[in-house]
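Hi Y.,

Following your request, here is the sequence exactly as I used it, all 159 residues.
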Amino acid sequence: MRSLTGALGLDERTIRRLISVLRDDLNAPIVYDRIDQTYKYTHSNWAVPNVRLDEPQIQALATAVQAVRPLLPTSMSERLNTLLKSLLDALPETTRDNIRRTQGQVEFVPAPIVAKGAQWFEPLHDAISRQLSVDMTYYLPARNAESRRRFDPYYLRNV
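Below is the corresponding structure, written out as tokens. Let me know if you'd prefer a different format.
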């Protein structure tokens, strides 16, 4: 574990979480060897599974991106655009052009809203995805006092 923390520049907790994701979510054949006190692959030829999307699925994703883009913080919207561009760039030119043309023919106009707390969306989303605890200062209006709190965010609802 120590060699991984040095080589990857990550703390031990993060590496354990990554190993857990590989093993539990991606079905990587990883076991802990108690004798060597290390993690090992039981099948050396395992690779992260490829995801294959067909044209209708990518078209649906392109439409969904179009729909949610105005509702997201800029950084998330940019990431979605980059993801969609990567997917489209991997397609044959005619398919890519058809999806982009169709995407240009669909428009979603959100109702005007006043964004409160938009600056907290990205750091909280990052904490959830990396399974980090969050420290915050909480204002108690009844006591006109502040309190420091630590919590583990599991769910983020952006209204």
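Residues 118-151 form one domain.

Thanks again,
Q.
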